[in-house]
Amino acid sequence: MWTVVASRLTSRWAGVIAFPVACIVGTIGYYAEKRLRGPHKEIPYLEKSLAQRRTERLMAEEVAATKS
């Protein structure tokens, strides 16, 4: 009898208990990693977007083609 009651309670309440616990653990982990990692480092190859670099490359190719 107790196994049936326990199995029904765990199946119904597992999601209700697990989701808030997972959110709390995830939040703590996010802020701990943010604090331990230190200041944000700039990534030099991401200064320009891919579209902007492509546009500049196409313009440079077009200028080079008109000079030839």
UniProtKB/TrEMBL annotation:
Primary location group: membrane
Membrane topology field: Single-pass membrane protein
Record keywords, A-Z: Membrane, Transmembrane, Transmembrane helix
Positions of transmembrane segments: 12-32
Keyword Kinase: no
Coiled coil: none
Domain of life: Eukaryota
Protein name: ATP synthase subunit e, mitochondrial
